[in-house]
Structure prediction request, 251 residues.
Amino acid sequence: VLPSLLRYVDHDLMRNSAAHNHPPSSHATCNICLKPWNSTIDPAYLNGTSEAAPSQYSVTTTFLPLEPCGHWVHYTCLIWLATRSHDRKGKCPTCGMQLFEWEGITALTLATRSSLNIATFVSRAIKERGQPPSLRSDMAVYEMDCEVIETMIHSQFFLHLGKPPKNADRSPDLVQCFYDVLNALQRMGKPVSGWLQYKTETGYALWCALVAIKMRRYLVEGHNTIQNTEAWRQFEDGRKVLQTNILAEVH
Prediction:
């Protein structure tokens, strides 16, 4: 079974961390950008202003061997490759070996963590529905998915406010509200955006974490008095367990 991109980067590649920045030859080059192993990376490339590989030098990055094929790449170039709109994003750029299970939400997580702007590409879902690719970029679909998440959080929260309270302080059941949001989104066929879709357990956990983050922000910004309730403590405990599970799955 192939690992998720996040597990591949944080676990599989880190098992051989002693070899990082120690290529077999002083003349080694990155198999993605084709620049010397100790080169830095063009910031214009990192900012997503070009589909071409980096051509100037400015940002330092780790040089490491891919697992299990052993071909060497810059870490940042690997993450960049994983955000491109082509079928090589889950494979070694040299031998074509499938390295990890590609899914949008893990690529988004790593691109954000690496300060890379994600590429705009047309989602498979839009293509499968027969709509012209020029109509909407996947970034637009991503933004629409986020709006739907926020709308559903608002709707479910007020539904739970109207239900008989189960907590001693009469606060609404935020944990059940969270699960109801997830279930409602699933019934709606969300996510649609390629950047939010998942295939692995890690990907699904990241999707849940995203919804939890948005729900927490909604409550803090619009209903901050709930932070003093039993419901809030239960919700925060559940959110922390989710974060712990993601770390355990990755490492």
Observations:
- The chain has a mean pLDDT of 86.
- The CA atoms of residues 103 and 198 lie 5 Å apart.
- The longest helix spans residues 138-161.
- The chain is about 45% helix and 0% strand.
